[in-house]
Specification:
By secondary structure, the chain is α/β, with parallel strands linked by helices. It is built from 19 helices and 18 strands. The protein has a five-stranded parallel beta sheet with strand order 2-1-3-4-5, sandwiched between helices. A five-stranded parallel beta sheet has the order 7-10-13-6-14. It has a two-stranded antiparallel sheet with strand order 8-9. The chain binds adenosine-5'-triphosphate and magnesium ion (MG).
């Protein structure tokens, strides 16, 4: 660590010399000032680690210096030197925030002890502040980018949910930031100082996952050469993050449910019950409610882990966030060299549908940063499928009443026509479906084509038919609400 610097303020040169000599010998660097004004200037310019000041100074007195110094740097320890016997002023100084006081006739040891204690306190405060800032930066909201109304609602819910002890289920497509949100929940919760323990329920075979979660005793199975605590134990007092909870096997669902109900676990191969106090945050990209309806996920477990549900919208539904995120990632991966996006590339990014959500955008920008030559990202730095705009987007109707097709002006006529046709076809199908309240047979009849063909077109345009008549083949089951080719 670099040498600590001490600012010494006194109007008596002998006193200053004396202090400087002792402190230098002990390895400190010293700055000196004969009055408060000069001291304040040095505080601002040199940021010393400790201030030692006499209380009686010409002009601004030591008390006033103390007040102003602590205002400028609340973590700065101050030691005041008091005249012999003036206990009142020492007490007043401590009340004003002085760390310690020394009599004018201090001993060398007394001085050195006071200085070391003050500097130790300073180091702790600085460390704490750094840690706090790091925590906030790494885990708080600061690095979750988003200003769309959809994300503003998420942030508010996260804040409220974090304060409570309720179990939380985060639902969202792949790459929408479920893990990031889970960490933010923990970091903003009363358990923030305790561990956050992620468990990936999808990556391990059932047996291994069981011993990961609940731990095992020595000899519980071949290879269990010593006892090992499970992740639920590790998370005691903190947050257990069950990623992809929908992938849990039925047997593990039951065991987890029991553990959460009783707040106790038994290690694999063990008999003792171990208390565990965990808050559970889970994530899934599946429709768990549907899994419950189909008997694939235990209903009691569903209700236990889903006290508060946070639904993360897909990126395509976060108006304005694509540009914001793209710039944030450019800053992260552009190494200061890249300044921004040209109009074409930004338009392409905003047009694309981002099926892989934020993670896909992040990858695309990282790649673009590697490929870009100049200061800006251009269309050719984006992957073809993004640059060419993915699915065309309908804008509000133009002045002639016809829907405008974004980006079509840039295409050769033949391709532009194809896009036009495709957009019109999709819009036609949607309108008909809406008019016939989702009844595919009726809509097909109105279109003058058979049901099968209509279905095929719906699939081609990824349109979901909201409802089908139960008398249609396969129409009675809930999953038949997805448009399918039969
Ligand atoms: N709003 C956001 N702001 C900044 N970065 C984000 C945001 N959302 C996601 N990311 C980044 O995108 C990547 C994917 O996020 P995360 O792993 O949290 O998604 P996920 O929903 O858990 O995905 P999966 O379902 O594939 O596990 C991470 O690198 C994350 O840092
Ligand atoms: Mg994840």
């Amino acid at each position: 660590m670099s040498e600590s610097r001490v600012l010494i303020v006194d109007d008596e040169p002998d006193m200053v010399e004396n202090l400087v000599r002792i402190l230098r010998r002990a390895g400190y660097r010293c700055l000196r000032a004969g009055d408060a004004e000069r001291a304040l200037a040095l505080l601002e310019a040199d940021h010393p680690d400790l201030l030692i000041t006499d209380l009686r100074l010409p002009g601004l007195d030591g008390m006033e210096l103390l007040r102003r110094a602590r205002e400028a740097d609340p973590a700065l320890p101050v030691i005041v030197i008091t005249a012999y016997g003036s206990i009142e002023s020492a007490v007043a100084a401590i009340k004003q925030g002085a760390f310690d006081f020394l009599p004018k006739n201090f001993s060398v040891d007394g001085l050195l002890v006071a200085v070391e204690r003050a500097l130790g306190q300073r180091r702790l405060q600085v460390e704490n502040r750094n840690l706090r800032e790091q925590l906030q930066q790494a885990l708080g909201f600061e690095n979750i980018v988003g200003r769309s109304p959809a994300m503003a609602r998420v942030f508010e819910l996260v804040r409220k949910a974090a304060r409570s002890e309720a179990n939380i289920l985060i639902r969202g497509e792949s790459g929408t930031g479920k893990e990031l949100i889970a960490r933010a929940v923990h970091a903003n919760s009363p358990r923030a100082a305790q561990p956050f323990v992620p468990v990936d329920c999808a990556s391990l075979p059932e047996q291994l996952l069981e011993s990961e979660l609940f731990g095992h005793e020595k000899g519980a199975f071949t290879g269990a050469v010593r006892a090992k605590p499970g992740l639920m134990e590790v998370a005691h007092g903190g947050t257990l993050f069950l990623d992809e909870i929908g992938e849990l096997s039925p047997a593990l669902q039951s065991k987890l449910l029991r553990a959460l109900q009783e707040r106790q676990i038994r290690r694999v191969g063990g008999t003792a019950l171990i208390d565990v106090d965990v808050r559970v945050v889970s994530a899934t990209n599946r429709n768990l409610r549907e899994a419950v309806a189909r008997g694939r996920f235990r209903e009691e477990l569903y209700y236990r882990v889903n006290v508060i549900e946070i639904a993360l919208p897909p990126l395509r539904e976060r108006a304005g966030d694509v540009a914001l995120l793209a710039h944030a990632f450019l800053k992260r991966y552009g190494q200061g060299r890249l300044r921004g996006f040209d109009d074409d590339s930004l338009a392409a990014l905003e047009r694309y549908a981002w099926p892989g959500n934020v993670r896909e955008l992040q990858n695309v920008i990282e790649r673009a940063c590697a490929l870009a030559d100049g200061e800006t990202v251009r269309l050719r730095d984006l992957p073809d499928y993004v640059a060419r705009g993915g699915a065309p987007v309908l804008r509000a109707p133009g002045p002639d009443g016809a829907p405008a097709l974004e980006g079509a002006e840039d295409l050769p006529l033949r391709e532009a026509k194809e896009r036009w046709m495709s957009v019109l076809e999709a819009s036609y199908l949607r309108t008909l479906l809406g008019r016939h309240r989702g009844n595919v047979s009726a809509a097909a009849k109105a279109a003058g084509i058979d049901r099968k063909t209509f279905h095929r077109l719906l699939t081609k345009h990824r349109i979901r038919a909201p409802r089908e008549r139960p008398d249609e083949p396969g129409g009675a089951r809930p999953e038949a609400s997805e448009a399918r080719v039969t």
